[in-house]
Amino acid sequence: MVRKITLSLLFILLAASTSLAQWNNVGGKWAFTNDRPDTIRGQIHGLAVDPDGKIWTQPWATINVPTTPGDTVKAVYALRVFNPDGTEASFSPVYKITTGGGFIEDTLYGSVISNPRGLRTDHEGNILAIWGKQTMYRINYKTGEGMNKVELGLGTSPAAPAVDAQGRIYVAPVVPGNPIQIYNPDFTFVGNAVEQTSGFARTVVVSKDGNTIYHCGYSNGYITVFQRPNVFSSYDSVGTILNGFHSETAEWDPKSGLLYASAGSFNDKAEFGYSNNTFYGYDIVNKAIVDSFKWVFNVPANSAERFRGMGFSPDGNKAYAGIFGTGGFPIIQQWHRVLDPVEVTLNVDMTVQITEGLFNPATGKVSVAGSFNGYDVNATVMTDPDGDKIYSAKIAGIEPGTRLFFKYASNGNLEDALTFPNNGNRELVVTSGNNKALAYFNDYLGAGINVNFTFRCDMELEILKGNFNPSTDILSVRGSFNNYAKTDVLTATANPNIYELVLPIQVKVDDVLTYRYGYATTSADVVETDKVYTVKQEDVTNASVIVTRGFNGIKRVDVTEQEVTLLFQLNMKKAINDVTKQAFESIQNVVIAGDALPLRWPGAGWPSEDNNKVKFLNDNGENGDMFRQDSIWGVTLKFPLYTVMNFKYKYGANWGLPSNGGSNDNESSTGVLHVMTLNKGIQSATVFDTWADMSPAKLDSIVADVREISNYAPSSYSLDQNYPNPFNPTTNIRFALQKANKVTLKVYNILGQEVATLLNEFKNAGVYEVNFDASKLSSGVYVYSITTGDFASFKKMMLIK
């Protein structure tokens, strides 16, 4: 046998662009006996499967029905529920939620409940349904009647909920910067699991014990993992999985225990070779993708087919998924698992055991005990016919989707040093493909094994800034593994901005590598600060790892594409000194520091001599302050091109004065900071902060990127329809100016309340285009208007999240 050095189970993983033949897409062959498929054409925002195998769908569009006998027809949202054979359930559609257990009747009026947000089956099989105005219901899966109702307190649109085995419910926000909340099975609020999320999300999933939350931030391009040791502890972010996934739906397979997630769509494209139309099965225990099934696009490469719900039949042998986007074609497809029995090959590497005298191949016996042989240590003997010290056994007749549990044994003694979650057993999810596993006995490696580290560095920003010259400069990786030498050089890949080097390094699990990138120019040596990488189980399992990031940890997607002017306004009324815990007797100066130029951080302890590193605010009615002596201090700061869009900052009061309470760092506890989140199109905005309120920065009067399309004077004024429309979350607005004048372009909600100022400045005659980012707004109809000279016009647009 050809040796491949691994630590734990080595699976034959699927390539990201292919699919194992474990599932058959029966898509259009759904067994509907009438025209039911037409009734669920369009778009859905949720899908769940109950214990009877009924498929619950949450269409985005309303239907028109008389909600009471003799009543006028009204638009309502309705849950559509289908039996496994495709016929509609007797109580479907559900648009009135009635119960005797606390609320009498709710009709899901489109104008009241707002857009649907997601479905999930709870721990008893009942259906959790969420709508955009933060209302969550529990619906009896047998009758369609309501059981519970709660008004959520997220402060923004919720995503599809998650449920653990104890019935606790986890609700995440669509919009980043908001908490993930936990509710008891009776819908009483427990508290926040996570205070602030990152990235837009449509779903969240949770482990059975509730101690691990998987937040699917599709705009991040990965799934963030939050974990706690037990129910009495707090959650911490412990890393990410499925990097390259822009996942808008995910669900557990009840048969295999795999977490299935959509990799992306042609609206939010998958990265790193994963397919936009594929749902991948991820093995949480072994941290590997081991399965997949594919969506068949109704229209090739259609950006309107975005995955917004999935579920599995109770036995795990059928999968269902639905899409959100434009209507006109069936939006649910199903897959059937291939159940033909297959053969599994288990391999254990005894090299280290033999080398260190722990096993004698001439007299010893190797075997495997597991769920397939009643855990009999003598039932399945392993052999090494080619003498390569890797012992093998074949297990026949295993149904795909089965999860095997097993341990290897040496001379009748089972492995005893394993730390896997199920009594230390190794695990393997069987597919209909080539099923092989390989591990070192007892996961014992001796001095370590060689793992191929692919160091991949994105140099685009350094090139754009003119700091790095690809023709002459040399980029290298320097670290504890090479004594920080400059000899391990990265070279450009097919993408000229991406530099790469594959370097074998001898490691064990939990080893910590310290490293940094640096490049030598003709006049200087430019290096980052040190970074660390902790070797994970899966790195050694696969004998390879990819370390990818931008130079200094920043990529172009993380920065602005123009200068940004921010007017900071800080409310100092009744300000409390965090050092003394008393109110300031007087405010004589206020400063701001941060980690994005022109902001900088002073040295440790904020020494007074570092006054040149902070920016002073004013309360004199000048230099960024709006009104004199009103206790609202202000300053205008210009942030340069390629400023990071997420940065931290903090204020201080009475810098260098005895009245500062003994420290210039006196707004809040050390390390507790304000967080700024910008967007690509922003040119200027006003930031409203209150002293010691460390919630995310609040931006107003946002002016977006204004592009001049033509400088020729058009024959008339005009305001064009935005495009795309509907949109999520950005759209473009084009207008024409016949004459030079001051132009005001504003956005209002349907109640007439102003939500954004996109432009309020003088412009020459010409044609212009403004990008509008509505990422912080909820779905709905908005009105945008232009006023310039004698011309005024307005149009409607629709935001759909």
Instruction: Please summarize the sheet with the most strands.
Output: 8 strands, mixed
Amount of beta strand: 35-45%
Query: How many whole angstroms does the radius of gyration measure?
Result: 30 Å
CATH architecture of the largest domain: 6 Propeller
Distance between the termini: 53 Å
Assign the CATH topology of the largest domain. Neuraminidase
What is the typical, i.e. mean, pLDDT? 87
Low-confidence stretches: 1-21, 28-40
Number of domains: 5
Number of strands: 61
Report the CATH C-level class of the largest domain.
Answer: Mainly Beta
User: Rough shape?
Assistant: globular
Let me know the CATH homologous superfamily of the largest domain: TolB, C-terminal domain
Number of alpha- plus pi-helical segments = 5
Describe how the helices and strands are arranged:
Blueprint lengths: L22 E3 L10 H4 L4 E6 L5 E5 L3 E4 L6 E4 L3 E3 L13 E3 L6 E3 L2 H4 L2 E6 L5 E5 L3 E5 L6 E6 L10 E2 L5 E3 L8 E4 L5 E6 L6 E6 L5 E6 L5 E5 L8 E6 L8 E3 L6 E4 L15 E6 L4 E7 L11 E7 L5 E7 L7 E6 L4 E8 L1 H5 L10 E5 L10 E2 L7 E9 L4 E8 L2 E2 L11 E4 L5 E6 L8 E10 L1 H5 L9 E6 L9 E4 L5 E10 L4 E9 L4 E3 L3 E4 L2 H6 L1 E7 L13 E8 L4 E2 L4 E2 L6 E5 L20 E2 L15 E8 L6 E8 L20 E4 L4 E9 L7 E7 L1 E5 L7 E2 L10 E8 L3 E9 L4 E10 L2 E8 L6 E9 L2 E9 L2
Parallel strand pairs: 28-35, 36-43, 44-52
Antiparallel strand pairs: 1-27, 2-3, 3-6, 4-5, 7-8, 9-10, 10-11, 11-12, 13-14, 14-15, 15-16, 17-18, 18-19, 19-20, 21-22, 22-23, 23-24, 25-26, 26-27, 28-31, 29-30, 29-32, 32-33, 32-34, 36-39, 37-38, 37-40, 38-39, 40-41, 40-42, 44-49, 45-46, 47-48, 47-50, 50-51, 52-53, 54-59, 55-56, 56-59, 57-58, ...
